[in-house]
TrEMBL record:
Keyword terms: Hydrolase, Ligase
Assigned EC number: 3.1.4.58
Name of this chain's protein: RNA 2',3'-cyclic phosphodiesterase
InterPro entries (alphabetical): Cyclic_Pdiesterase, Phosphoesterase_HXTX, RNA_CPDase
Extent of motif HXTX 2: 130-133
Keyword Hydrolase set for record: yes
GO MF, one annotated term: ligase activity
EC main group: hydrolase
Active site: H44, H130
């Protein structure tokens, strides 16, 4: 029996930062004319988008992700920079970046490799770690200027886990944690 829900693997933000980001998103909404803002509890850094997953593959994913987590240590990430994807004058995604991290890249590579071994056909674009804040620009021509970088946060947080999420398109928050994979803490 297969499910038509979509699943992805991602790093969640810590609880304290979700609260701070909730206030931050309200401030940004007053300034940027995006139509769909991400619920603060849905903020994350995607490692792999899986799409639909049947029960057999679900067990394989959970087993593989557990093995990866048991062999990986927690690490810190620093937020840095705001940017967009899509047409620069009418972007489809507004995001907050993170500083380049060897630990993050290694974790993403291991997750990707395991998912491909299970048989998932994953996106081959280069990894650009980010936290999606909003979608669908609906205003005059978008101006990406130095003021944008002045509004970026510089929080540092510890990545203690990664998560298998299920998407629920008609609920808020949209993403449900189906599997939590704690990293070793040193």
């Amino acid at each position: 029996m297969s499910t038509q829900n979509h699943f992805f693997i991602a790093i969640p933000l810590p609880e304290y930062l979700i609260e701070e980001m909730s206030i931050y998103l309200k401030e940004l909404k007053n300034e940027f004319a995006f139509t769909r803002w991400v619920h603060p509890e849905d903020l994350h850094i995607t490692l792999a988008f899986l799409g639909a997953v049947n029960e057999e593959r679900m067990a394989e994913i959970k087993d593989s992700m557990t093995a990866i987590a048991q062999d990986a240590s927690g690490f810190s990430l620093k937020m840095s920079g705001l940017g967009t994807f899509g047409n620069p004058q009418s972007p489809r995604i507004f995001w907050h970046g993170v500083v380049e991290s060897a630990e993050l890249n290694l974790l993403r590579d291991r997750v990707y490799e395991a998912c491909e071994k299970i048989g998932f056909d994953l996106d081959r674009r280069s990894f650009h770690p980010h936290i999606t804040l909003a979608r669908k620009w609906q205003g005059p021509v978008f101006q990406q200027n130095s003021a944008l970088s002045d509004q970026a946060r510089t929080d540092t947080f510890i990545v203690k886990e990664f998560v298998l999420y299920q998407t629920h398109l008609h609920k808020l928050p949209k993403y449900e944690k189906i599997g939590i994979f704690p990293l070793k803490q040193e």
